[in-house]
Amino acid sequence: SAVISQKPSRDICQRGTSLTIQCQVDSQVTMMFWYRQQPGQSLTLIATANQGSEATYESGFVIDKFPISRPNLTFSTLTVSNMSPEDSSIYLCSVRSGSDEQFFGPGTRLTVL
Amino acid sequence: AQSVAQPEDQVNVAEGNPLTVKCTYSVSGNPYLFWYVQYPNRGLQFLLKYITGDNLVKGSYGFEAEFNKSQTSFHLKKPSALVSDSALYFCAVRDPNTGRRALTFGSGTRLQVQP
Question: Which of A6, A45, B14, B75 has the most C-beta neighbours closer than 10 Å?
Answer without folding.
Answer: A45
